[in-house]
Amino acid sequence: MSFRTSAPFPSLILDDVRGAQKILSGVARATAMEGSRHLSELVGAPVQFKCENLQRTGSFKLRGAYVRIAGLTPEERAGGVVAASAGNHAQGVALASSLLGVRSTVFMPVGAPLPKVAATREYGAEVRLHGQVVDETLAAAQEYAERAGAVFIHPFDHPDIIAGQGTVGLEILEQCPEVRTIVVGIGGGGLAAGIAVAVKALRPDVKIIGVQAAGAAAYPPSLAAGHPVALEAVPQTMADGIKVGRPGDVPFRLIQELVDEVRTVTEDELSSALLLCLERAKLVVEPAGASPVAALLSDPKSFRGPVVAVLSGGNVDPLLMQRILRHGLAAAGRYLSLRVRIVDRPGALAALLATLSGSDANVLDISHVRTEPRLGLTEAEVELHLETKGPEHCEEVAAVLRGAGHLIVE
After folding, report:
1. Do domains 12-59+160-328 and 61-152 have the same CATH topology?
2. Which fold has domain 61-152?
3. Secondary structure (3-state) at 367
4. H or E element at residue 20
5. Residue 312 bears catalytic tag
6. Domain 333-409 in CATH 3.30.70.260
7. Catalytic residue among 40, 59, 61, 207
8. Which position among 195, 310, 356, 396 has the lowest Cβ density within 10 Å, counted as fewest Cβ atoms?
9. What class has domain 12-59+160-328?
10. CB of 142 within 8 A of CB of 85?
């Protein structure tokens, strides 16, 4: 398909998104909507999840990649395609290329999670590991594409990509016609832009709220400046799916015109949101995919319902998931880590643990240190990792320890 700009862009872009929906028929799943009773109670209105984490390849990225590659000429297809990605776009391009019979080469950072690298290869792409950060990987991929005469498939900064991602918006309106607010994560902006152009053309009354990680929030300063602005510092967030340092030129123009608001969320809010998705909704969601949930948790009464939160992806490395869940438990007051100074004598550690046994806290891990320079000759230090029942219980555990004469080291 080709992107047309001669007519007023809202209705024209809607035509492109509808065209993309036809192209994706039988390829991309119309992913499910799942209600969230917990969030509905917090918001005071129905909240539903649009589960793109259950899409083929585990994210929405297949939609845009397939539409983009399907629109290539026979000559362009013959030269193959090239992409750069830490995970989701890589898998989307790999599967789309395989389905269309096009050779694909995907550049990934050297530190990309092994499950994502393996999945990209299994979908049929040749994987090349290059660079420590995505910007280095991107530069290498673009240089290779020029040298090899292949087509570079950008993850978000192309009209066909945006049209493909916009089919999520059409599905939301079909599945939840009463929706009044859509909340969606923003990295480069392709998904939010696509949803916005589709939804605003059909339902201009629907409010669209974008969400960025606070450590990778390039859109607020860009919107304030009126043009894309690159972050001065390297983006820092666990949400690698939206870890982008500069908005895309094409999606920025659309988001500037059509998205009502862009909010930011903290790392604590992201980890708490991921934990909620896992525990309450029984859904595996990556941090970027949980960003709309984080926004809902941070200020639930500010959303007009019914609300649809787009869970954009579920590709999370198990090791990262383990760390995030521990972080989420800590943020929710259900995980307590502390150091206790004790006298280094027989029975002192047993006495400490006996005190803990009466606090109803579950000891997950314990480390007994006796030789650190910071410790006195007759001192030892015990690092404890405890499972607790919430913030109040954490305070109770600390009070029990102090009441028994134990020194908690800040």
Report:
1. yes
2. Rossmann fold (3.40.50)
3. strand
4. helix 9-23
5. yes
6. yes
7. 61
8. 396
9. alpha beta
10. no
